[in-house]
Amino acid sequence: MSESTTSSKHVSFLEYKGKYKGLLGWIFSTDHKRVGLLYLYTMLVFFSIAATLGLLMKLQMLAPGHTLMGPQTYNAMFTVHGIIMIFVIVVPGLPAVFGNFFLPLMIGAKDVAFPRLNLASWWIYVIGILVVLSSQFIGGWPDTGWTFYAPYSFQTPVNIVPALVGATIMGFSSILTGINFIVTIHRMRAPGMTWFKMPLFPWTLYATAWIQVLATPVIGITLLLTLMERLLGVGIFDPRLGGDPILYQHLFWIYSHPAVYIMILPGMGVISEIIPVFSRKSIYGYKAIVLSSLAIAFVGYFVWGHHMFTSGMSGRALYAFSFLTFLVAIPSAIKVFNWVSTMHKGSLLLQTPFYWAVSFIFVFMIGGLTGLVLGSLATNVHVHDTYFVVAHFHFIVFGGTGYSFMAAIHYWFPKMFGRMYDRSWANIGWVTFFAGFLSLYTPMFVLGLQGMPRRYYDYLPEFHAWHIFSTLGSILMIAGAAIVIINLVRSSRHGQKTSEKNPWGGKTLEWQADTPPTLENWEEVPTVTQKPYEYK
Amino acid sequence: MILGASTFVEGVDNAFMLILGISFFFLIGITLTIILFIYRYNEKRNPKATPVKDSVTLEVTWTVIPIILVLGMFYYGYVGWIPMKRPPSEGVMVTANARMWSFNFRYENGRVSDKLYVPKDTAVIVNLNALDVLHSFYIPAFRIKEDMVPGLANNRSWFEATKVGSYTIFCAEYCGLQHSYMLSEVVVMEQEDFWNWYNDPDAMVEEIPEDANLALLGRQLVQAKGCVACHSLDGSNLVGPSFAGRFGETITVITGGQEREIEYNEEYITRSIYEPDADISVGFRPGQMLSYEGEITEQEIELIVEFMKSLSEE
């Protein structure tokens, strides 16, 4: 925070001059907004890579047999696609980009509680990614699937150590971001902003941060145990050394199931911001949404066993897990009812962020409802480890995080860059993406019900028709994503300039800040007197 | 739903129908409501929003109704699943062995088959055994799936088939390179046919008629035992070296850390099947193959040798 910048008024965070210039001014900046954008650009690069891998996999699946690549390449691709998408994109995802950028703005703070730690999290994150990528040069891409299930992960000829070390390092970045947000929310809310006057996106970040802090160490421990076994030969998970492979699955899912809520909760927060603003109406059931977020974060810890219904676990444990899984569905249902009720008698502003938000509700419902099929014991046994799971997972994780990410960036874009994107291209991109998404993933539900197992490089001819449908959908979806991304990247440099503080008529604090915001956001920290979303 | 051929199908499909029915009802209902709202309350049609007060009654209603519905789903899922966990004490006992990347099935009388032959309307209890990594025993037509875990004892699946026919067995748990080719079949037979097959004296003695084409029998054998998943017949090298065009050649192997040259002959083939890591062809990794001692007899190795000879002659 150099003294020269705070004195000059209205210099946006994009333009101010700190100690360093150019690129260094970004990668060494502790400004929460610049850190948020650093995450955004990193994710943009890796999303493009992982999405390309996904497209290549779909092209291979266009016809049975060896068409585009061999099985080793395919297996490595779905592994790298999974590792990048999960650990680099969706887990840090919304909190790292929009949490960093907007949490202080929305609660009236000048920055997060620990700005240097915040920058350090980004550096740790980048180091983690580089370590994962180094596997290409020391032993080849991992081919275990992103779950690294034992004992295959100990027997595969390729070197999975870099991927494990990298994932562990990225876990630390996640923990540090979580701690930072918890302290920021506890200590740095604007005068008058009591807990129940806090907007909903910060609330979901708060619930998420607790999961990050409490659950992420478990994956760190698991991956370290795996390293001990692989490098030192200590028998923990490998039955040849006297270990238990099912123990690995327990530890892995104790983290990875709550991680699904790390991915989806902030998305729910974004939707809870956008729906009231574009309905010109107060959010319906504010407290219900807050409580359901906390309930999801809490109950989400106790349902990991539903990933293991066919693993050989005891029957009693199975129905306990099934029962809890059904309970965790309730808070999500409550949120959907609240969003839809908010639109009732509103005055709906039909703009791009609203389209993404509404399509989020649609794909989230499909993802959630098919989750019920997976939570029920009898039906889970049939569809577990089939394309049904792949479809469900992409609807809930890509649908949930991806659509809310797109909604968020179209909503906050003018505030972030002081420019506006091309609205008609944004809408064309949305409709193309939405149509592609549905035709890519919906056929996978049918394939799964027919019994097509996942992670198959090749398949029986009876599954061919639905695979063609799905591959065509993937091409359409990638085209849609390309339109959206090109439009946004182009507009961030050449879009129409705007300094309008509040283009959508939002009621939360970030819309009172300058567009784009200045270095420490406020000349005078605002005082809060009303609840958020008070439309009269 | 898809074709079903076991006693579990009804319970499982009932749970599917209930859950999918309720899901479609809510999905369509909520989607239509959203579309109606967008039409009725868009900015042009409804320029002024009307504030609505939160209603506790409504919040409680839409919490309680879903709870009741999901409890119903839980119950149906439980009822359809519990029989799978309770195998009867009597029935045909089979041990299923899974390895990268093939299944085989051993019956109580010692008969071994690469396909699972079972009688109709009879309980079949399958002991699940994995020799290397995790696999999963999945028969969609029977609605059963259970992971095969190395080192886990008393891991069982069971079923009672209701329709004569052949149904695919998939490995559903990712197990490496050739995972997608780890398939087999369950063949459901009339009871009489099954017991004839089961007690077939010819099959037990495995006497080979004099005029048999030994090379052809050898080819069938390497396919049935799953060898071709790693050893190609066209000269390309997969996980292990190809079988094609090598018999009688001199090859370089690594034995106990030392390189040496040996002839690719019957002795070498036998050792490679029973002690796969003893001599590793240069360019390949040890530890990829498990011993087939007790799975492939010496008589069967003779057939494999005849087949390899034929590949070199072509």
If you had to describe this structure to a student in words, what would you say it looks like?
The complex is a heterodimer of chains A (536) and B (314). Chain A is an all-alpha fold and 536 residues long. Helices cover 67% and strands 1% of the residues of chain A. Chain A has a two-stranded antiparallel ribbon. In chain A, helix 3 (32-60) runs parallel beside helix 6 (115-133). Chain A is globular and about 65 Å long. Residues 1-8 of chain A have low confidence and may be disordered. Chain B folds into 3 domains: 9-85, no CATH class; 92-203, Immunoglobulin-like, CATH 2.60.40; 208-313, Cytochrome Bc1 Complex, Chain D, domain 2 (Orthogonal Bundle). In chain B, helix 5 packs across helix 7 (298-313). Chains A and B meet through helix 4, helix 10, helix 12, helix 13 and helix 14 of A and helix 1, helix 2, strand 7 and strand 9 of B.
List keywords for this structure.
heterodimer, A: 536 residues, Cytochrome C Oxidase, Chain A, two-stranded antiparallel sheet, 17 helices, B: 314 residues, alpha+beta, Immunoglobulin-like, Cytochrome Bc1 Complex, Chain D, domain 2, five-stranded mixed β-sheet, 7 helices, 34% helix
* Largest interface, counted by CB within 8 Å of the partner chain's CB: A-B, 83 and 83 residues
Q: What summary fits the major beta sheet of chain B?
A: 5 strands, mixed
CATH superfamily of the largest domain in chain B: Cupredoxins -  blue copper proteins
Helix content of chain B: 25-40%
Helix count from the secondary structure assignment of chain A: 17
Provide the succession of SSEs of chain A: HHHHHHHHHHHHHHHEHHE
User: Quick one: CATH superfamily of chain A?
Assistant: Cytochrome c oxidase-like, subunit I domain
The CATH topology name of the largest domain in chain B reads Immunoglobulin-like
Provide a compact summary of the structure.
Chain A has helices at residues 3-7, 22-27, 32-60, 71-90, 93-107, 115-133, 152-155, 161-187, 200-232, 245-279, 286-299, 315-343, 352-375, 377-383, 387-417, 423-450, 464-494, and strands at residues 419-420, 496-497. Chain A is an all-alpha fold.
